[in-house]
Specification:
The chain has helices spanning 15-20, 39-44, 46-50, 71-81, 94-104, 115-119, 121-126, 135-141, 148-164, 181-194, 207-214, 218-230, 246-263, and strands at 4-8, 25-29, 59-62, 86-88, 108-112, 130-133, 171-172, 198-199, 237-239, 242-244. It is built from 13 helices and ten strands. Strand 7 (171-172), helix 10 (181-194) and strand 8 (198-199) form a beta-alpha-beta unit. The model has no long low-confidence stretch (mean pLDDT 93). With 270 residues, it is α/β, with parallel strands linked by helices. The two termini are 20 Å apart. The chain has two domains: 4-214, TIM Barrel (Alpha-Beta Barrel); 218-263, no CATH class.
C-alpha cells in the first residue's frame, strides 16, 4: 500500500468516488476531518457508505486517539466493520496499540505524531502492522516549522525504527498543497529517497503526481539496468568506473522493484 487516500467519515457520498479515483486504499477519517458535533452521525452511517465501495478496494478507518471521548465508540464501530486495518493517531505506546488491535479485531497502523511517539518509535513499530508519519501534528507538537529540513531527523528515525522492528517501510505524512502537482511529486520523491514506501493523500488530485514521485527516475532506472546487466556473470564487475558488489546489486534490484510496483498501478512511471 503506497498511496492511501483520506476521505471524511461524514461524507459517505464520497467513499465510492474516492475508491474509483485510483488510490491503493481508502482511509475513512473519523478524526481530524470530522467536527466533534457530527462524529456520532458519521460513525452511524459508515456501513451504508462502505456498501458502495468496490470489494477489491481496501478500506481502512482512522479512529480518534486514545483518551478522547470518541475513542471507545470508534473502536466498537471498527470491530463491527471487519476492516483490514485501522489507523491510531498520536500513538505513544505499545500498550495502546495492543488494546486497539484487541478491540477492533484487526491490525493497527500507528501514526507517529508526537515527541513521545518518536521517542518510542521502535516499540510502536514492533506493536503495530506499520507506522506512518503524522508530520503536521508532529511539527505542531514540537513548535517547529513543517519543512523538509526540520523534519529530516524525525523521518530518518522512523525509517530506522521500521527496519529495526522488521516492519514495512513507513508511510510519509500529507502534503497540504492539493493542486501543486510538482510539489506533490517532489515530496514523494524526497520521501522515497529517505526510505519511505508510501504517502498519505488528502485529495484525489494528488494521486497521479504522488505515484510519479514514487517512480524511480529515468537515470535511476538506467543505472539499475546497467548494474544488473553487469552482475549477470556472477563475478565482480565495474559500472561507470565503480565496483559492483552485493549491496550495489541489491540497491539496483530495489529500484527495479519500485518501478514495477508503481508501473502496475499507473502509466506515470517512465
Amino acid at each position: 500500500m503506497t498511496l492511501p487516500l483520506f476521505v471524511p467519515a461524514d461524507r459517505a457520498d464520497r467513499f465510492a468516488k474516492a475508491a474509483f479515483a485510483g488510490p491503493d486504499a481508502v482511509i475513512i477519517d473519523l478524526e481530524d476531518a470530522v467536527a466533534p458535533q457530527v462524529k456520532e452521525r458519521a460513525r452511524e452511517q459508515l456501513p451504508e457508505g462502505l456498501s458502495f465501495v468496490p470489494p477489491d478496494m481496501p478500506v481502512l478507518l482512522r479512529i480518534n486517539a486514545a483518551g478522547t471521548e470518541w475513542h471507545e465508540a470508534d473502536m466498537a464501530a471498527a470491530a463491527q466493520l471487519r476492516l483490514p486495518a485501522v489507523l491510531l493517531p498520536k500513538a505513544e505506546s505499545a500498550e495502546e496499540l495492543r488494546r486497539v488491535e484487541d478491540h477492533c479485531g484487526c491490525p493497527v497502523i500507528a501514526l507517529v505524531e508526537t515527541a513521545v511517539g518518536l521517542h518510542r518509535a521502535v516499540e510502536i513499530a514492533e506493536a503495530s502492522a506499520r507506522i506512518a508519519f503524522g508530520s503536521i501534528d508532529f511539527a505542531a507538537d514540537l513548535a517547529m516549522a513543517h519543512t523538509r529540513q526540520s523534519l529530516l531527523a524525525a523521518r530518518s528515525a522512523l525509517v530506522m525504527a521500521a527496519r529495526l522492528a522488521g516492519r514495512p517501510a513507513p508511510i510519509d505524512g500529507v502534503t497540504t498543497a492539493i493542486h501543486d502537482a510538482d510539489l506533490i511529486a517532489d515530496d514523494c520523491a524526497h520521501a522515497a529517497e529517505l526510505g519511505f514506501s508510501g504517502k498519505l493523500l488528502i485529495h484525489p488530485a494528488q494521486i497521479v503526481p504522488a505515484r510519479r514521485g514514487f517512480c524511480p527516475s529515468e537515470a535511476e532506472l538506467n543505472w539499475a539496468a546497467r548494474i544488473l546487466a553487469a552482475a549477470t556473470g556472477g563475478t565482480a564487475a565495474r559500472v561507470d568506473g565503480a565496483m559492483v558488489d552485493a549491496p550495489v546489486i541489491r540497491r539496483a534490484e530495489q529500484i527495479m522493484a519500485r518501478h514495477l510496483a508503481q508501473a502496475k498501478r499507473s502509466d506515470a512511471c517512465p
